[in-house]
Design brief:
The chain contains 5 helices and 5 strands. The chain has 189 residues and is α+β, with helices and mostly antiparallel strands. Strands 1-2-3-4-5 form a 5-stranded antiparallel sheet.
């Protein structure tokens, strides 16, 4: 994995190892059954293996200068790692959205912190009519709405010592201003 910066690689491998432990500890029949890749699936974080990186999005409007490391499990929405001179960026890719790419962190840990209370169905950030409601949920959710999802999010939060973002709108705007030009993609006709 020479093409993956060490800091991102380390955190991705750590996340994968946590998923392995989580999947192995769950009893059969729980909603997030399905092996390592699906261990955090009920929180809408389906992982790609860090030991087989390199998937470039083949979705309409897909990011061309990064690779997918996770998906939400629905409608082609996925998360890409983008690397450049200024470091790692995590990009939410919602292929058919009004704004199909949203930078949602400068590191894997910062991205994980964004969804540590709500989970990772962040699709609405890409839609003009849903963005404000999604940001409101990310800023104001302080209790888990589902016990199974809450269990998974607590596991992630404890392992990575996550804290929910404050000032979500301002941080997303700053990330967008700083990094949107770095995302290479071909608009869908």
């Amino acid at each position: 994995m020479a093409d993956v910066p060490t800091s991102f690689r380390t955190d991705w491998e750590r996340l994968w190892a946590l998923a392995e432990r989580t999947a192995a500890s769950m009893p059969p029949g729980v909603p997030f059954e399905g092996g390592t890749a699906a261990a955090f699936g009920f929180a809408s974080l389906f992982l790609d293996s860090p030991y087989e990186p390199g998937f470039v999005s083949d979705y309409p409007n897909g990011v061309q200068n990064g690779f997918r490391f996770a998906s939400t499990g629905g409608d082609g929405t996925h998360f890409c790692a983008l690397f450049g001179d200024t470091g790692t960026r995590v990009v939410l890719s919602v292929p058919l959205a009004d704004k199909p790419h949203y930078v949602v962190g400068e590191s894997l840990a910062e991205f994980l912190a964004l969804g540590c209370m709500t989970g990772y169905v962040l699709d609405e950030l890409g839609y003009d009519d849903g963005r404000a409601g999604m940001i409101d949920a990310l800023e104001n959710t302080r209790a888990y709405d589902d016990p199974d999802r809450g269990l998974l999010l607590r596991i992630l939060t404890e392992e990575f010592q996550l804290r929910p973002w404050t000032g979500v709108r301002d941080r997303l705007d700053a990330l967008s201003a700083q990094y949107d030009a770095d995302i290479e993609w071909t608009p869908c006709d």
